Amino acid sequence: MKDLRSMTMEELQSLIASWGEKPFRAAQLFDWLHGKRVKSIAEMTNLPAALRGRLEKDADLTTLRLHTCQVSKDGTRKYLFVLPDGERVESVYMPHDYGKSVCVSSQVGCRMGCRFCASTMDGLARNLFAGEMLEQIYRIEEDTGEKIDHVVVMGMGEPLDNLDNLLAFIRLLSHPRGRNLSQRHITVSTCGLVPQIRKLAAEKLAITLALSLHAAHDEARQRIMPVARRYSIAETLAACEDYFKITGRRVSYEYALVRGENDRETDARALAALLKGKKAHVNLIPVNPVSGRDFAPSEGDAVLRFQKILEKNGINATIRRKMGADIDGACGQLRRRLAE
Ligand code: SAH
Prior knowledge:
Elements: H1 9-18, H2 24-35, H3 49-58, E1 65-71, E2 77-82, E3 88-96, E4 99-103, E5 107-109, E6 124-127, H4 130-144, E7 150-153, H5 163-173, E8 186-190, H6 194-202, E9 208-212, H7 218-224, H8 233-247, E10 251-257, H9 265-275, E11 280-286, H10 300-312, E12 316-319
Parallel strand pairs: 4-7, 7-8, 8-9, 9-10, 10-11, 11-12
Antiparallel strand pairs: 1-2, 2-3, 3-4, 5-6
Helix pairs in contact: 1-2, 4-5, 6-8, 9-10
The structure holds S-adenosyl-L-homocysteine.
């Protein structure tokens, strides 16, 4: 059965038409799902009882249940949600001075196997539907009473490994009748699935693409990211360049600094050479320690030196502020491990 909250306006319209209902019922339904964000079909009081009955019988309505919320001393909140089938996902709320952000999960687990990331340790359980991604935002807005300004798809999972659901999610989140979040305020991060980067570019959305690069040489990248054995850095960067050409949106490059592994001056120079002449922005993140993995973050000095070398070579680079590390809410630390 199809989940109503995962259906685009067009899909709702054809469902409603196929049931012989009046076309305006689709928009009413959409308003209940994404405007008022009801948790049950019974609450859709302006729909005729017969239509509500049919919806109850022939459709599902996904609602996430809030399991726990941990609050960090920096204001970051890590949410654990329970999905309708009992699976769990985590989402993170971050109050920045430039606005409120939510980091959304796109899969339960992940099958990409990046060595420094906790989300992939148990493999992939399943993809999330669009409604399950949206609900993370809806429930966080309900809980905090705040309006979210930015959404980053950087939680558990590889979003481009779940492309169709991701596209529906972006369309629904930016729909004028729904949450109406500007696509410019949505960032999707990928470990670098080249064919899917090209498919995403063809959709010509106004979202920002972030590539998790983490190394400037193929051998070094292959040591920490299995996906690098499938696609070379050259092929991956070519796809990102094309993404920029097709969409006009500058690509961000994520680089997690691991002490003694990829944080030397030669690494910084190699990265600068790789990105030279591209409309690139680099986000430097000292790797977050993850239990069961022995990667150590680069020291403060090394991080600053790395940034300086990039900037001297004309590459824009920012150091990502660590948020929520004390509640395991920082990048790469999300993992289902709470007891019932
Ligand atoms: N699968 C996607 C999005 C999820 S991870 C991707 O790979 O991009 C979001 C970002 O956090 C990625 O850049 C990822 O490489 C990074 N990350 C994962 N584990 C990390 C860790 N322990 N420390 C710092 N960054 C980490």
